[in-house]
Amino acid sequence: MLRAELTRRLPFETDVMICASGDILRLFSSDPFAGQPSGPSIVRFVSVLAKRSRPSSPIPLSLPASGKWCLKVLAHRGQFVCGLYRREMKAISYLGQLDKIFGVPVTTRNWNTIAAIVRILESVRR
After folding, report:
1. Mean pLDDT of residues grouped by 10 in the chain (126 residues)?
2. How many CA atoms lie within 13 Å of 103's alpha carbon, on the beta-carbon side?
3. What is the spatial distance between Cα 90 and Cα 84, in angstroms, rounded to a whole number?
4. Is 39 helix (H, G, I), strand (E, B) or coil?
5. Where does 1-126 show beta strands of DSSP type E?
6. Would you kindly state where each structural domain of the chain is located, as residue ranges?
7. What is the rounded distance in angstroms from the CA atom of residue 123 to the CA atom of residue 15?
8. CA quadruple 57, 63, 68, 73: dihedral positive or negative?
Protein backbone atom coordinates (compact mmCIF):
# COMPACT_ATOMS: atom_id res chain seq x y z
CA MET A 1 0.00 0.00 0.00
CA LEU A 2 2.86 2.37 0.84
CA ARG A 3 4.57 1.75 -2.50
CA ALA A 4 1.32 2.33 -4.41
CA GLU A 5 0.59 5.55 -2.51
CA LEU A 6 4.09 6.94 -3.05
CA THR A 7 4.08 6.24 -6.76
CA ARG A 8 0.57 7.69 -7.08
CA ARG A 9 1.56 10.95 -5.39
CA LEU A 10 4.84 11.57 -7.16
CA PRO A 11 4.59 13.75 -10.27
CA PHE A 12 6.97 11.45 -12.19
CA GLU A 13 7.33 7.74 -12.83
CA THR A 14 9.61 5.96 -10.40
CA ASP A 15 10.44 2.64 -8.79
CA VAL A 16 10.17 2.42 -5.02
CA MET A 17 12.27 -0.05 -3.03
CA ILE A 18 10.99 -0.90 0.44
CA CYS A 19 12.93 -3.04 2.90
CA ALA A 20 11.89 -4.61 6.18
CA SER A 21 13.91 -3.27 9.11
CA GLY A 22 14.78 -6.82 10.19
CA ASP A 23 16.25 -7.55 6.75
CA ILE A 24 18.46 -4.46 6.96
CA LEU A 25 19.62 -5.36 10.48
CA ARG A 26 20.41 -8.95 9.43
CA LEU A 27 22.37 -7.75 6.40
CA PHE A 28 24.37 -5.32 8.50
CA SER A 29 25.15 -7.87 11.20
CA SER A 30 26.33 -10.41 8.60
CA ASP A 31 29.31 -8.15 7.75
CA PRO A 32 29.29 -8.78 3.98
CA PHE A 33 32.56 -6.86 3.52
CA ALA A 34 34.72 -8.91 5.90
CA GLY A 35 38.16 -9.47 4.40
CA GLN A 36 37.57 -7.08 1.49
CA PRO A 37 39.88 -4.19 0.59
CA SER A 38 39.00 -0.75 1.92
CA GLY A 39 40.37 2.76 1.74
CA PRO A 40 39.61 6.17 0.30
CA SER A 41 39.59 4.90 -3.29
CA ILE A 42 37.16 1.99 -2.66
CA VAL A 43 33.46 2.42 -1.88
CA ARG A 44 31.36 -0.26 -0.20
CA PHE A 45 27.80 -0.29 -1.50
CA VAL A 46 24.47 -2.03 -1.17
CA SER A 47 22.03 -2.13 -4.05
CA VAL A 48 18.40 -2.84 -3.25
CA LEU A 49 16.47 -4.77 -5.86
CA ALA A 50 12.88 -3.76 -6.63
CA LYS A 51 12.01 -7.41 -6.00
CA ARG A 52 13.93 -10.60 -5.37
CA SER A 53 15.61 -11.79 -8.53
CA ARG A 54 18.36 -14.13 -9.64
CA PRO A 55 21.40 -12.68 -11.41
CA SER A 56 22.13 -13.57 -15.02
CA SER A 57 25.82 -14.01 -14.10
CA PRO A 58 27.35 -16.01 -11.25
CA ILE A 59 28.22 -14.12 -8.05
CA PRO A 60 30.89 -13.06 -7.08
CA LEU A 61 31.28 -10.96 -10.21
CA SER A 62 33.89 -8.41 -11.29
CA LEU A 63 33.42 -5.73 -13.92
CA PRO A 64 35.11 -5.46 -16.26
CA ALA A 65 35.44 -9.23 -16.58
CA SER A 66 39.19 -9.00 -17.27
CA GLY A 67 41.89 -6.64 -16.10
CA LYS A 68 41.68 -4.37 -13.07
CA TRP A 69 38.19 -4.50 -11.53
CA CYS A 70 36.16 -1.32 -11.27
CA LEU A 71 33.14 -2.94 -9.59
CA LYS A 72 32.86 -6.17 -7.63
CA VAL A 73 29.59 -7.81 -6.67
CA LEU A 74 30.45 -9.81 -3.57
CA ALA A 75 27.12 -11.18 -2.40
CA HIS A 76 23.44 -11.40 -3.25
CA ARG A 77 21.16 -11.82 -0.24
CA GLY A 78 17.43 -11.62 -0.84
CA GLN A 79 16.77 -8.20 -2.30
CA PHE A 80 20.25 -6.92 -1.42
CA VAL A 81 23.39 -6.88 -3.56
CA CYS A 82 26.64 -6.04 -1.76
CA GLY A 83 29.78 -4.93 -3.50
CA LEU A 84 32.68 -2.58 -3.96
CA TYR A 85 33.52 -0.03 -6.60
CA ARG A 86 36.57 2.07 -7.23
CA ARG A 87 36.16 5.84 -7.00
CA GLU A 88 36.37 6.32 -10.75
CA MET A 89 33.92 7.77 -13.28
CA LYS A 90 33.69 4.38 -15.01
CA ALA A 91 32.09 2.93 -11.87
CA ILE A 92 28.80 4.69 -12.62
CA SER A 93 28.40 2.83 -15.89
CA TYR A 94 29.15 -0.48 -14.20
CA LEU A 95 26.64 0.25 -11.41
CA GLY A 96 24.12 0.91 -14.17
CA GLN A 97 24.60 -2.65 -15.39
CA LEU A 98 23.22 -4.12 -12.16
CA ASP A 99 19.65 -3.54 -13.44
CA LYS A 100 20.45 -5.72 -16.45
CA ILE A 101 22.33 -8.37 -14.47
CA PHE A 102 19.41 -8.81 -12.04
CA GLY A 103 16.61 -8.02 -14.49
CA VAL A 104 14.88 -5.58 -12.13
CA PRO A 105 15.36 -1.94 -11.15
CA VAL A 106 17.91 -1.32 -8.39
CA THR A 107 18.86 1.60 -6.20
CA THR A 108 22.35 1.82 -4.76
CA ARG A 109 23.48 3.29 -1.46
CA ASN A 110 26.82 3.67 0.25
CA TRP A 111 27.42 1.24 3.13
CA ASN A 112 27.78 4.29 5.40
CA THR A 113 24.15 5.15 4.64
CA ILE A 114 23.09 1.63 5.59
CA ALA A 115 25.09 1.97 8.83
CA ALA A 116 23.26 5.24 9.62
CA ILE A 117 19.90 3.56 9.01
CA VAL A 118 20.94 0.71 11.33
CA ARG A 119 21.84 3.21 14.08
CA ILE A 120 18.37 4.75 13.78
CA LEU A 121 16.65 1.35 13.79
CA GLU A 122 18.62 0.26 16.85
CA SER A 123 17.81 3.49 18.72
CA VAL A 124 14.09 3.00 17.99
CA ARG A 125 14.28 -0.56 19.31
CA ARG A 126 15.73 0.68 22.62
Report:
1. 90 89 95 92 96 91 94 95 96 95 95 96 88
2. 6
3. 13
4. strand
5. 42-49, 61-63, 71-77, 80-86, 106-110
6. 20-125
7. 28
8. negative
